[in-house]
């Protein structure tokens, strides 16, 4: 497979400007006769569909939820980055670019990341113009906070509901176009295949989840904005429906899959409480602005806590180990996610975990409460405030900032986080890997694009907090609408594409065959059973720490799960009408294949970088040890027809503007 | 605008609250005037007031408007009631409305109907007799400073000498109390005047009004029956 | 670990929109108090699948109270007995061993049942499409985000209105089946922000028109929606919408 990243010439900060200046355009009259399918209506999809329709293309958009407003982006809590430098703390496009490359442990493309940093400021302007209610200070101007892996405050937020507010903004733009008739919206539709005609993506096969019928939709270009695949781990912070199916089917049709093993394990999630658990809940990274992470210094305290003889509040300061502050004094609790997660695992593996399963650490707000309380007392002119008063005042401030997160925690755990430190543990959260795309966001299949979390693009081996929302909206609002024109300029004479071609026929038949075989399987175990098993294998062997031996075992195990799944999965077959188990089964089938590829990828990458930590490759003090000589490339895997024999292609990463060095947050 | 003036759900609410507030203002006047019976002067002051109200051209015109307002309130209310019923064609098998709202807020149509039934009786007792058939009390007129006045006070005493009438009137006042308890605030909410700043004030006035007016009304038949006024 | 609870469920089953449907009894045993309500239904469904029965269809996605997808009417209350939470955030510790629990779909003319507990809330989308937006194209050439300062109080209020998750509990709860809380929240968000001013009048007129066409009932200020809204959207948004609507009707053009 030929991989051409199509990075424009010129100096880094001129590439995008030059590209835009020279890109081919489609005139307005022609746009109307060009169809584009956008699969997914998260931040990437909704913004892309709305923008393309505004430009004049005729757009069809799909989502599997009952409304575009419910895409998984809605759940993002903490915030969105932008190099606005409103805080005057030295931020700039270059710094955002640099932080992102470094945060990603030097495994992303310079040109893409720089473009992302360039358009970041526009995103905020656009969203404010749409009426997104970002948090503001008393002067009426936009407020910022800081996130992990940076030393500036560039994160815009709307309480703990930033994703919701941004998505509702994009959804309103999309709704406006749907109302105008320029976007045809297909809710409760799941894409199950891409149709390739003469080497170009020409449409999709989708299943109407209500009626159960298969539908053919043709277009001149197909854009996949279908989100991440963290649910391959069964338990993750992703929404229940998040899946890899669209991306995986595209992969099977020739789209290369980039860096599949790069998974982000988020350090601050609510620990698992039991076998019944269906998903994990994130506690936003923004909490690390004010929360301090610790475990007891001494085993006897750990024991006492587990036996409920001691409460965390009872442990005196000098018997606590604030291990992030100890190990990383420069960034403290705000180290990047991969590092924070690994450090938590290290403590818990050493036996310092503070809950019954030994898999939890504390996130403590008591110092923040006191600090804020003192400041408030001063502001209010209370000079000899009692401790009680200070705590009350401080609690109010913390409630203002994180109220909804604290409430969420209390709902789930039934403990008051204002008085008892939160218990947290790392959980799967985001997938940096995804469909390989070039500078124009086109996959290795002409006419097939991927945006948002679905592509592999900008985050390298580790994503910085608040950068996924930025990337999703950058792709959808400001990048794809330009780059897609370059391809569609050749399509103005193509005319309407027929859905009656043999290619559509074959694709539909394929999907039908798979559905029929699942329905008539007469197995015994529900689909979730296999998904859970797969998740456990992935978490143990392809999670926070990976080894050659473990990965090889995992590959064999997954092959076994696949066999059993096809032999023994039970899908109720009374009717196709709203058959929720069938939808699940189709997704799990793809997760199994993807899981195996992730293990192959992790096995191939004999180095540690970002979220990919191979135990064999670490420094003396346990940090990730990269091997730039041999692995400074993107793994772009090609489908060979056999999930157990993927083919590796490499895209070398070239750094012209940044000196590649050992990442240090000390 | 024309269609929007009547057709939409919000406009129906608007008219409901406008007519409601109008009826509330009527209640205030009606109540104040009738409270003159408590002057304990053998109904002299009250009969003069009633005479004025019965002969003043402006008041007589307003009476027509009042009937119009009442009918509009009733018709609008019934329309809302039936539309709202069809907004939930399949009912819940298990309902627990008390968890989230007050019974009287949910029962405005019922309370309104009770009030209407009472009103028919009330109109028959007084309005019909003063305006059309003539009073039943004998003699029908009294003289005051040379003027011949209808003895409405006497009529009241006569009507309220029957226990069942007193009971029906008191029940009517109860219905009115519940109806107002919701209706007063509701009117301000529907007009969009329920600003946070005024919310508590409006609620307080509403509660006060709902208690005082029906109490004063109820006191009339009761006092007369018990012979407290003379 | 505590011993699990045993519950008796009475679940609404309906094969399709046209089907008449009815309540079916199920027993679910050994329920952990740490489970969410949806996880309890998962357990029921796994059982049903193993037996070869059709599992109960219900909407859900994020399972953390933000997507607005989950929608169960539990023991006579939208999203169950707790306040300020969605069904997915309701935990089984709110129930007792031996409880009987009714589970029904949202009931409204505007929300036809698709299957079992799943309803079609497309009406909300259509209301949004009628005017729930600011007409600004993507350009990257809008003015700087800080060009218009917005008083914090207004920004906060707009945000509070904007937290509506479009779940439809307000409609499900309202004895009149009215959608005013949902529509009021959207109208309020834009009415409070400078960006929303240009289309302020048309927006409220169009959204209300669409709302009426969808078959929702008329608000009579009962206030149940406010109590059961998982996001604590206040009745104030309805007052504001009434105000917006009346002024828009008095002065249709600017
Ligand atoms: C709990 C949580 C908190 C987060 N917080 C932050 C944060 O604070 N800041 C930040 O920057 N990032 C955050 N992230 C990450 C960020 O939210 C996501 O990466 C981002 O929203 C992904 O957007 P998307 O548009 O690519 O995909 P999604 O929002 O996942 O949308 C996917 C869309 O594709 C559709 N779809 C998928 N498959 C199919 C199919 N086969 N057929 C049809 N439609 C399909 C879905 O219906 C959906 O509309 C968070 C993530 C999680 C899980
Ligand atoms: S107003 Fe509340 S109850 Fe109604 S849809 Fe919005 S969040 Fe749900
Ligand atoms: S499942 Fe998303 S709000 Fe309940």
Q: What does this protein structure show overall?
A:
- The complex is a heterotrimer of chains A (666), B (230) and C (254).
- Chain A has 666 residues and is of the alpha+beta class.
- Among the domains of chain A are: 161 residues, Succinate dehydrogenase/fumarate reductase flavoprotein, catalytic domain (Flavocytochrome C3, Chain A, domain 1), CATH 3.90.700; 136 residues, Fumarate reductase/succinate dehydrogenase flavoprotein-like, C-terminal domain (Methane Monooxygenase Hydroxylase, Chain G, domain 1).
- Chain A has a 5-stranded parallel beta sheet with strand order 6-2-1-10-18, sandwiched between helices. Chain A has a 5-stranded antiparallel beta sheet with strand order 12-16-15-13-14.
- The longest helix of chain A is centred in the middle third of the chain and has 27 residues.
- Chain A is globular, with a radius of gyration of 25 Å.
- Chain B is 74% helix and 3% strand.
- Chain B starts with a helix and ends with a helix.
- The mean pLDDT of chain B is 92.
- The termini of chain C are far apart.
- Chain C has 2 domains: 110 residues, Ubiquitin-like (UB roll) (Roll), CATH 3.10.20; 129 residues, Orthogonal Bundle (Fumarate Reductase Iron-sulfur Protein, Chain B, domain 2), CATH 1.10.1060.10.
- The interface between A and C is large, with 83 and 79 residues.
Question: Major sheet of chain A: size, sense and barrel closure?
Answer: 5 strands, parallel
Number of helices of chain A: 18
Q: Which stretches of chain A of 5+ consecutive residues score pLDDT under 50? A: none
How would you name the oligomeric state of the polypeptide chains in this document? Answer: heterotrimer
Shape of chain B: elongated
Q: Could you tell me how far the N terminus lies from the C terminus of chain A, measured between alpha carbons in angstroms?
A: 41 Å
| Number of DSSP helical runs of chain B | 9
CATH-defined topology of chain B = 3 helical TM bundles of succinate and fumarate reductases
CATH level-four homologous superfamily name of the domain at 268-428 in chain A: Succinate dehydrogenase/fumarate reductase flavoprotein, catalytic domain
Strand coverage percent of chain B: under 5%
Q: Portion of residues in helices of chain B? A: over 70%
Superfamily (CATH H level) name of chain B: Fumarate reductase/succinate dehydrogenase, transmembrane subunit
What percentage of amino acids of chain A are in beta strands? 5-15%
Bin the helical content of chain A.
25-40%
Could you give the count of β-strands of chain A?
22
CATH architectural category of chain B? Up-down Bundle
Spatial order of the strands in the main sheet of chain B? 1-2
Largest interface: A-C, 83 and 79 residues
